């Protein structure tokens, strides 16, 4: 296809959006290059996001189980379980290295050129990296996102006192007291890691509830479960400043609605108040592409910007900042660029919080359905009535299914369960196929599995579950 360009497609950024798009484009016969400023491929997700956080969540859960005596009721007596944090961090690094190295292998296998360095537009068909310029018929911006700074709270990951998620994934010792600013996904996942490893963890959240955007019942019940685990959650509170003296930080906070301020001492402060699109240094203006008032790049259904031949996907565009959304958009964008039809159903992007228990969500929340004016029915089934969860002593949580009262079509599902992240795929697929709650209720589910709770919640929509 090249038409005198160096490439058919140049991708800027090798996160789950960019690397997947590059591989798909190469598979479809396009001459493809991928520019990455980081030393390794894989973006935020593989280097400092999804992968290292899940490695630490898994390892910290194992430590907690072994150390807390939780296994004794199963007849497993352990004495002297000790934390070797250095080893835990090194195993996490190994997983990151294996996976980022895997992308380099896939690039070679698919003949994608890895162009090392920071890319900046020269025009809508040219990107400069260092001293060299590369031309391409199509350019895909997949530069991702980085942490939103909080004025008055300066992050310095190297000092291990005020950190962002990257710093919180490599603390050299367990803090006595960690204060997390932001009761969202990062705050609760990484707060869980350090809570399990022995820290006292306080979460300071500006809004009245944690986990914004999730179903109201789930937000309330998740907070109750986290508090039971030992999280100190302070909602409706804003941080107004932070001073650091040596290895201690002092935060100043006040009620979000105004009132007396108070201070809170911390050994580590984790700033996790959201992420912002990466557009700095990209010289976007030279391409003609503009951003919206949130700094995001708007695209059409084919992921093309207002400038022909310039595309964008993933965290740099509107929508949930999730790796699987970026990946699916990467595949679809590559397919559009190759002249095919790409498909992403943005109404059905699952969201999972990998705490214990996990929290997973698909489709609309009850609040969204109510606001839309649609008449609806709700079916709930608690894991206390699920035989496998009971056997595993793992009964925190429930499945909530929301269906259209008239058509019975499933509009949303929300799950709190140790296996919620895996279970949500079933409802997502059912919803993709336009399933009714009756379709799910009459689908045979293996016994004994946690997934039976989805069937029973669907039966509950019709008022007839068996086990409650
Ligand atoms: P990114 O992964 O951010 O990749 C963009 C890449 O572009 C980066 O490597 C960057 O170095 C590079 N880049 C930027 N500008 C330039 C330039 N000018 N030139 C060259 N290269 C450039 N999502 C999930 O779905 N599940 C999870 O479990 C999950 N856990 C997370 C945990 C943490 C701690 C964090 C921070 C995020 C997590 N996320 C998770 C979110 C997920 O990481 C992002 O949604 C995803 O990485 C976005 O992919 P992307 O391709 O858009 O961008
Ligand atoms: P978030 O948007 O999930 O949560 C940020 C929280 O901070 C919100 O509850 C918000 O109300 C609160 N907040 C904002 N300003 C505040 C202030 N000044 N003081 C106190 N609280 C304040 O953002 P988070 O946790 O930083 O994660 C960023 C993104 O990374 C998310 O959008 C998520 O999509 C992605 N991510 C996904 C994961 C997953 O899929 N499991 C894991 C980690 C991150």
TrEMBL record:
Catalytic activity reported: N(6)-[(R)-dihydrolipoyl]-L-lysyl-[protein] + NAD(+) = N(6)-[(R)-lipoyl]-L-lysyl-[protein] + NADH + H(+)
Organism: Parasphingorhabdus flavimaris
Further details from the record: The active site is a redox-active disulfide bond.
Domain FAD/NAD(P)-binding residue range list: 7-330
Pfam families attached to this UniProt entry: Pyr_redox_2 (PF07992), Pyr_redox_dim (PF02852)
A molecular function (GO) term: dihydrolipoyl dehydrogenase (NADH) activity
Cofactor note: Binds 1 FAD per subunit.
Family classification: Belongs to the class-I pyridine nucleotide-disulfide oxidoreductase family.
NCBIfam families: lipoamide_DH
InterPro entries for the chain: Class-I_Pyr_Nuc-Dis_Oxidored, FAD/NAD-bd_sf, FAD/NAD-binding_dom, FAD/NAD-linked_Rdtase_dimer_sf, Lipoamide_DH, Pyr_nuc-diS_OxRdtase, Pyr_nucl-diS_OxRdtase_dimer, Pyr_OxRdtase_I_AS
Its EC number(s): 1.8.1.4
Pyridine nucleotide-disulphide oxidoreductase dimerisation domain boundaries: 349-458
Essential cofactor(s): FAD
Keyword Translocase: no
Key words of the record: Disulfide bond, FAD, Flavoprotein, NAD, Oxidoreductase, Redox-active center
Protein name as catalogued: Dihydrolipoyl dehydrogenase
């Amino acid at each position: 296809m090249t038409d005198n360009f160096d490439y058919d497609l140049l991708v800027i950024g090798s996160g789950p959006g960019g690397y997947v798009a590059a591989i798909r484009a190469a598979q479809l016969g396009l001459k493809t290059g991928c520019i990455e400023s980081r030393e390794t491929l894989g973006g935020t997700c593989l280097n400092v996001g999804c992968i290292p956080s899940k490695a630490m969540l898994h390892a910290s859960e194992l430590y907690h189980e072994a150390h807390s005596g939780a296994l004794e009721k199963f007849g497993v007596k352990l004495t002297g379980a000790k934390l070797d944090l250095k080893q835990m961090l090194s195993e996490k690094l190994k997983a990151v290295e294996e996976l980022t190295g895997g992308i380099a292998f896939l690039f070679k296998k698919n003949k994608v050129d890895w162009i090392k360095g920071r890319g900046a537009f020269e025009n809508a068909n040219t990107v400069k990296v260092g001293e060299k310029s590369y031309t391409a018929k199509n350019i895909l911006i997949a530069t991702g996102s980085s942490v939103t700074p909080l004025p008055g709270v300066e992050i310095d990951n190297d000092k291990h006192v005020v950190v962002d998620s990257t710093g919180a994934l490599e603390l050299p010792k367990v803090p006595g007291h960690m204060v997390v600013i932001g009761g969202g996904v990062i705050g609760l996942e990484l707060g869980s890691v350090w809570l399990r490893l022995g820290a006292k963890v306080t979460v300071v959240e500006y809004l009245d509830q944690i986990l914004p955007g999730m179903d109201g019942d789930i937000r309330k019940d998740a907070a109750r479960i986290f508090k039971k685990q030992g999280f100190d959650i302070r909602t409706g509170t804003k941080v107004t400043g932070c001073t650091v003296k040596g290895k201690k930080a002092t935060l100043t906070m006040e009620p979000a609605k105004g009132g007396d301020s108070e201070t809170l001492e911390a050994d580590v402060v984790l700033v996790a108040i959201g992420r912002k699109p990466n557009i700095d240094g990209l010289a976007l203006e030279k391409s003609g592409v503009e951003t919206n008032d949130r700094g995001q790049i708007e695209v059409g259904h084919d992921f093309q910007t207002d400038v022909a031949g310039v595309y964008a996907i993933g965290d740099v565009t509107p929508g949930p900042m999730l790796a699987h959304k970026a990946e699916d958009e990467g595949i679809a964008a590559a397919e559009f660029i190759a002249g095919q039809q790409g498909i992403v159903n943005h109404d059905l992007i699952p969201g999972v919080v990998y705490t214990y228990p996990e929290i997973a969500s698909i489709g609309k929340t009850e609040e969204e359905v109510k606001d839309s004016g649609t008449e609806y029915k709700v079916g709930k089934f608690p894991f206390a009535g699920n035989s496998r969860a009971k056997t595993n002593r793992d009964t925190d949580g429930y499945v909530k299914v929301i269906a259209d009262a008239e058509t019975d079509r499933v509009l949303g599902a929300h799950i709190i369960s140790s296996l919620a992240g895996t279970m949500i795929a079933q409802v997502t697929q059912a919803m993709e196929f336009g399933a009714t709650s009756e379709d799910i209720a009459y689908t045979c589910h293996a016994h004994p599995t946690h997934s039976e709770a989805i069937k029973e919640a669907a039966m509950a929509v019709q008022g007839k579950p068996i086990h409650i």
